[in-house]
Amino acid sequence: xxxxxxxxxxxxVRIAGAGDLFVVEALADLIALGAGLVASDDRDSLVTxxxxxxxxxxxxxGTAAEPATETFLAGRRAxxxxxxxxxxxxxxxxxxxxxxxxxxxxx
Length: 107
Known about the structure:
The protein is mainly alpha-helical. 76% of the residues lie in helices and 0% in strands.
């Protein structure tokens, strides 16, 4: 666990050094909201949360950044306020299939 925490913290330092604080915030929320989903026994929603976060971070480098960011922020707000991940589904669906992600997050 400590090695994972170290790697996560080191990654955040490198991302923060690049100057995109949105990405730091998105990753921090991924951890916080993901912990909430696990605590509420909703592990099935973890895949959507992880994929949507990945999609919005990837979009930051391209022309789809603004729509993806708006969709992500609205979906994240719905998850935080109502526990509803459906707003993140469309964004998560923009990524290619990720076989094994659900299995890895189910542990």
